[in-house]
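Summarise this fold before class:
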Amino acid sequence: MQCTTIRPGVECPFMKASGCSYNGGVCYPIVDQCQGCGRIVQFPTGMYCSACPEPALKWKRGNCNMATHVVTATENKQKINPLKASKRGGK
């Protein structure tokens, strides 16, 4: 259903016939860590995330998994077979 509270005209999975079923009945505005993300949408009532109704919860335990502006560094470690490694260590 389409939102009728904070983000009018946007499809929302929390919208029911009786109103918004999310915590408190409203979506929450973005937090400071969200600045620069591509999922931010401007509405007359403020700036909101298009992917999450409460962005503060996404940032509570580290980086938001939906953030488009956060780049995570991955290390390319070569996988070592423990059996072969133990045989090499004995020589």
Observations:
- The first helix runs from residue 55 to 58.
